[in-house]
Write a structure and sequence with these properties.
Layout (H helix, E strand, L loop, with lengths): L14 E2 L25 E5 L2 E10 L5 E5 L2 E7 L4 H10 L1 H20 L9 E4 L2 E7 L6 E5 L10 E5 L7 H31 L5 E5 L6 E3 L4 E5 L7 H13 L8 H10 L3 H10 L7
Parallel strand pairs: 3-5, 7-9, 10-12
Antiparallel strand pairs: 1-4, 2-3, 4-5, 6-7, 8-9, 11-12
């Protein structure tokens, strides 16, 4: 079941050592000790930085590694010695340190993006900021557009049929339910439009809450899209939709597949970057 490939298919945005090359980044300043997973049992110095890492042994032919929210994880064949593994890590130290720094920045932004589920809080919807309004006079949830708002002030308000004393959990659940309904509506519209352009048929569309994938496609025409995509603007949603529908013609990530994507999303790289950099509100 092909899905949007690393690192773009993952909401956790893991970075792998087989990721496409990226332009050289300026040097970053990192603390001597980097945060790590509780499962990290090894550490080494990369330049002046001490980096802990989790080591997994398995039946594989080469050394691989990825940087995720919990730090550096390394996979290696059982027969490869620790000295050889760390030699490879030192050779890739610039890439590893850059990705660790990016993860730190992402985690910082995620903390800043946490929502206080109450009247007046703001959430992203289709790339716009929406203010939450607790309004027990309305039924369900209703989106309002305000004209003549000041620059920098959101012009959209989501009125929730909840009393002012509603709990954070009630507000969160009401918002999530509304967003999921909107996601299905938007995804159905975009899938219909891009299926026609690509000459493919979507037999079933379902919403996903996966923690590690934005979407997936099956050869039988079944498409799954993560409802959290509804936080992004339409260009990003269209990229993911086109990506999954392109799999109905090319069930791989070959050059031919990317040409199919490019045929309907000529500048898909920009949307892919926005998807990678996006920080979404937490619903836990």
């Amino acid at each position: 079941m092909p899905a949007i490939g690393q690192p773009l298919s993952q909401m956790s945005l893991f970075d792998r050592d087989d990721a496409p090359p990226t332009p050289a980044a300026p040097p970053v300043v990192l603390p001597p000790a980097m945060p790590s997973s509780p499962r990290a049992r090894h550490e080494l110095h990369l330049g002046e930085h001490r980096v802990a890492y989790e080591l997994k042994r398995g039946r594989r032919r080469s050394i691989g590694f990825m940087v995720g929210p919990e730090g550096l994880a390394v996979s290696a064949p059982r027969w490869v010695g620790l000295a050889e593994i760390e030699s490879v890590l030192r050779a890739k130290s610039a890439w590893i340190l850059r990705k660790l720094h990016e993860q730190q920045e992402r985690q910082r932004r995620q903390v800043a993006a946490r929502v206080d589920w109450r009247d007046g809080s703001v959430i992203p919807f289709l790339g716009e900021s929406v203010i939450l309004v607790l309004d027990d006079r309305c039924t369900g949830a209703v989106l309002h557009t305000a004209d003549g708002t000041l620059p920098g002030v959101p012009g959209l308000t989501l009125h929730l049929g909840l009393p002012e004393h509603a709990s954070a959990e009630q507000v969160r659940d009401a918002v999530q339910s509304w967003l999921q309904r909107q996601a299905r509506r938007v995804f159905e519209e975009r899938c219909a439009a891009y299926a026609q352009r690509l000459g493919v048929r979507v037999k079933r569309l379902s919403l996903s809450s996966a923690a590690t994938r934005w979407g997936s496609a099956s050869a039988d025409g079944a498409i799954r899209l993560n409802w959290r995509l509804v936080h992004f603007g339409l260009p990003v949603i269209d990229y993911v939709v086109a990506h999954e529908l392109a799999h109905l013609r090319e069930m791989n990530h070959s050059a031919a597949f990317w040409e199919v994507v490019r045929s309907v999303i000529p500048g898909y790289e920009q949307a892919r970057a926005a998807l990678r950099e996006g920080v979404l509100p937490a619903f836990d």
